[in-house]
Structures are given as structure tokens and as C-alpha cells.
Design goal:
By secondary structure, this protein is an all-alpha fold. It contains 6 helices and no strands.
């Protein structure tokens, strides 16, 4: 029941409400979100590559880069005490957006309508906005800096893991 209570606290972040620093600090909930993040990203990646081993490598790098990036940014800002709340917030928001991405990818695989690409772009913008909001609230920075940091996060985490995965395969 504790996970449900934590989920109720963190869900408003997906609508750009609440401050991640004011939410419950729960390492168990962080671990659950990390596991769910890994599984859902693995399923999405496997759907795109059709190679489970390559997907495993890329999602492993993606997960590691996410944790290291958040830890490094918080360490540089001297707010490492907020690692659990911030990481949980980032992972939970990514998980929620990923739950919406899965049916769009299935739709895209089946018919490749232009509308499905627009919906995918909107979901990407939503996730970018969520990550920017979390960084803005956690690091107490302005909107443009949080958007830039969110863009750097996406480039390093997603493109970095893809690049390393391609070099290894």
C-alpha cells in the first residue's frame, strides 16, 4: 500500500504540480520505478531494434547514464541530498510518458500515419517539459536553464546510450 501512496504523491508532477523536494523520500519506491523504467524501456527498445541483446546493452547504458547524470548535476549544485526524490521523479515521469508511447509505437508499426509521428513528438515534448520542470524545482534555476539542462540530459542519456550501443554492436 505504501507504493500506491507514493504514486499518488508523485503523479501530480506529470501535470507540472508539486515540488519534488517536498515529496516522500523512499528508496523502495525508487527501486520499483527503476525496475519499471528498465523493463518498459527494454520493451520499447526491443520493438525498435528487434535484437534483445542490443536492447539490453542500450537500456543498461541508458539507465546508468540517467543515474550518473542526475547524481552529477545534483553534486555540482550541492543538492545531492535530493537524489532519491529527484531520481524517483524523473523515472516516474518517464515511466508515465512511456506508458503513453507504447500504444503510439504499436499504432506507428501498424500503419505509419503522419498523425502517429505528431503524437510521438508531442509525447517527447511532454517528457522534455517534465524533466525541465523537475530540474527547475530541484536545482532552483530559471526556466531557460532547466530546458537547456533537460535537452542535455536527453542528448547524453538517449543519444549517448544509442551511440555506445552502436559502437559495441
Amino acid at each position: 500500500m505504501l507504493a500506491i501512496d507514493n504514486l499518488r504523491q508523485f503523479i501530480p508532477l506529470c501535470w507540472l504540480k508539486h515540488n519534488p523536494l517536498e515529496l516522500t523520500r523512499s528508496t523502495a519506491f525508487l527501486k520499483q520505478n527503476l525496475l519499471f523504467f528498465y523493463v518498459i524501456e527494454f520493451l520499447i527498445q526491443t520493438n525498435m531494434t528487434d535484437d534483445p541483446f542490443e536492447s539490453f546493452l542500450e537500456v543498461s547504458f541508458e539507465t546508468a547514464f540517467t543515474l550518473v547524470f542526475i547524481g552529477l548535476v545534483l553534486q555540482l549544485n550541492k543538492t545531492l541530498y535530493a537524489f532519491v526524490q529527484t531520481t524517483t521523479a524523473v523515472l516516474l515521469c518517464s515511466n508515465i510518458v512511456s506508458l503513453f508511447i507504447i500504444p503510439v509505437l504499436v499504432w506507428l508499426t501498424i500503419n505509419q500515419y503522419l498523425l502517429s509521428y505528431y503524437v510521438l513528438a508531442l509525447l517527447f515534448i511532454w517528457e522534455l517539459a517534465l524533466i525541465a520542470y523537475i530540474f527547475r524545482k530541484t536545482l532552483a534555476i530559471n526556466l531557460s536553464a532547466s530546458i537547456a539542462l533537460s535537452a542535455v540530459y536527453f542528448i547524453l542519456v538517449y543519444l549517448g546510450s544509442f551511440s555506445i550501443g552502436q559502437m559495441l554492436m
